[in-house]
Design a protein that fits this description.
By secondary structure, this protein is an alpha/beta fold. It has one domain (24-93): Rossmann fold (3-Layer(aba) Sandwich), CATH 3.40.50. The chain has three helices and five strands, in the order βββαβαβα. The protein has a three-stranded parallel beta sheet. Strands 1-2 form a two-stranded antiparallel sheet. The longest helix has 10 residues, at 41-50. The N and C termini lie far apart (51 Å).
């Protein structure tokens, strides 16, 4: 049975919410996000999972709107996205 890791994160609306992150010990985990804006929730979730311990190296998202100032890479997480902020800017200009 998987262990459960409590994780608190801040929504874009600045309200606090509780989420439960389930992980099996010693498992490789890929985080899934719809949109990354500031990249704040991803490092926190990765750290909570690593304490289980789980191996977290990648986050997959539909849209990466972050300026990607190295925050996720510093947390040891690489980003794989369908669209980036640059893609959205190019589409808007054309």
């Amino acid at each position: 049975m998987p262990d459960s890791v409590p994780h608190v994160y801040r929504h874009w609306s600045a309200t606090m919410s509780d989420a439960r992150v389930n992980a099996v010990r010693a498992t490789r985990v890929t985080l899934i996000e719809d949109v990354i804006t500031t990249g704040g929730a991803v490092p926190a979730a990765a750290e909570a999972l690593r304490e289980r311990p789980a191996e977290v190296t990648t986050v997959v998202c539909a849209i990466d709107r972050s300026s990607n100032e190295g925050r996720l890479e510093a947390a040891g997480v690489s980003v794989r996205s369908v669209l980036t902020l640059a893609d959205l800017d190019r589409a808007h200009r054309s």
